[in-house]
Amino acid sequence: MAASPHRYDAIVLGAGLVGMAAVALAGRHARTPLSVALVDARAPEGFATAQADGRASAIAESSRRMLDAMGVWDAIAPNAQPIERIEVLDGRLDEPGRPVLLRFDEATFENAPSAHMVENRHLYRTLYEAIAASPTVTLKTGQAASSFAFDGALARIGLADGTELAAPLVVAADGRNSPARQAAALATVGWSYEQNGLVATVEHERAHGGVAVEQFLPAGPFAILPLPGGHHSSLVWTEKAAEAERLMALDDEGYTRELQRRFGERLGAVKPVGPRHSYPLAMHVARDYAAPRLALIGDAAHVLHPLAGLGFNLGLRDVAALAQEVVETARLGLDHGALDTLERYQRWRRFDTLKVAAMTDGLNRLFSNDNPLLRILRDQGLAMVDHIGPLKGFFMRQAAGVEGSQPRLLAGDPV
Fold this sequence. Notes:
Layout: E1 6-7, E2 10-13, H1 17-21, E3 36-40, E4 56-60, H2 61-69, H3 73-76, E5 80-82, E6 85-90, E7 100-105, E8 115-119, H4 120-132, E9 137-141, E10 145-149, E11 155-159, E12 164-167, E13 169-172, H5 179-183, E14 188-204, E15 211-217, E16 220-226, E17 232-240, H6 241-249, H7 252-263, E18 270-286, E19 290-291, E20 294-296, E21 302-303, H8 311-331, H9 339-367, H10 372-386, H11 389-400
């Protein structure tokens, strides 16, 4: 006789940053907390490395409010660097004195930073510690989900060791190649950019002053994002796939030389700190974010170009919308994994995601070239925006995620 499955209110697949944030369903801020099982083949406590690994995230103001509502921002804040100003440049390699065409300073956004930069290792550690301390969360990590069944009143997830979990709702935060999405036959639409994203942390001679720089170079955007301490920055760097492969193969001296060419001289001499990362860039959006007993969030639902630095923030917006729909339904004693509940989540998130996808795709195509006519037109457009205060404010509020109707968590309120 088969053992009975372990029963929960929800099962979250994937213990990355978005998956761990999805345990907001069980958090102390939820007035009706749910019992949640968190499943991952890896052990999330191992993600919180003692040394920098080159990866960092921009935390938009709405995301900061959400993390505060979840009770974790105070632990994150000592390792967060406020972005005091954003400068946008358009130039070529080895071009001296690249002019700033568009500038957003803190006064543009209600006299407060629109975002903070935080190394991922600090986010992982803080979220993991909150999850480990929660009485309503069960960690099922160190083994992969091996089977999926989404029919009936309960979804069933089989683990590699033969354990079976059951819940009215499965939340897939299991990445761009989501096995749960594939098991539910949810299709995606999208394409490859034939570009790679290179990610690294660098140390530089001069202090960054909290300034984030987005340089549009012919191969793609090159973002310099300030980290705490004043002399370290995170890079998100787009190159053609073949060139990225060449760069990754360089020795430290050659790699540093290529970094300096793109950095320019504004921060003096630079050198990489910690490992380098490279990954293929693509845009993939699921046609549906919901199916019976299943909701997709984060990269399982959408993978966009990193140009706007909104990947983690979009995942948190997914979590906030899903938590509100699910918890409110459960509070009424109704089936919180029913398709009508999940379709309300899908309607809430679809437009925002498609809007951001169209924006990032369009900007990447517009700026990832060296067409002289396009360069004149785009530079004139950026300079025009720079002189229209209300328009700059609108763009800043959009980036901060505080424009329009929001789930309560993004406003810093409990669900």
